[in-house]
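For this section, I looked closely at the sequence of one protein beside the tokens encoding its backbone, which the following lines show:
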Amino acid sequence: EQKVPVRPKPVSVQFEADYSGPSYTVGGKCSNDGYVTASILKSVTPQLVIGGEGIYHPRMQGASFVSRYETRHFVGNALVGTYGVVNLSYMRKVNSRVGLATSLQVNVPGREVVYAAGYSFNLRQANVKARVDSNGTIGCILEEKITPNFIFSLSSYVDYSKQDYKFGFGVSIG
């Protein structure tokens, strides 16, 4: 008879609170592993939202600043972090069923730049989304709405450079 050693699993607890006002949202989180975050989002105009988030941990501190501009035909997002990360994204609504998107992620300390392009195609009861990026990864998801409260999903992710292939399915109820 062989006994398997029992290792205690760390327990993670997180407390989170949000408050939404007429044109803003503020929030905060803290966890038992020492992370504390605070965030605010403010609608400057009906199309423009700006905000920021600060994070504190005894070994790491940082902040990020975000903006979002949305019209009937497109959505643009920007994020700049004090830790050297810049994310830019743009999504064009071609029509009520088709959307095209691009994103650019720049990691200055890691000297890494990733560009991605994707699409979204909405059918009456299904949604297909796919993306490809400059690292050679390809992802796709199909969501089928069986009933209003039951969604079945199929997904795939392929990273040729790392020979990493993932396929999955999911069910959303409620």
The radius of gyration is 20 Å. The chain has no helices and 13 strands. The first strand starts at residue 14 and ends at 20.
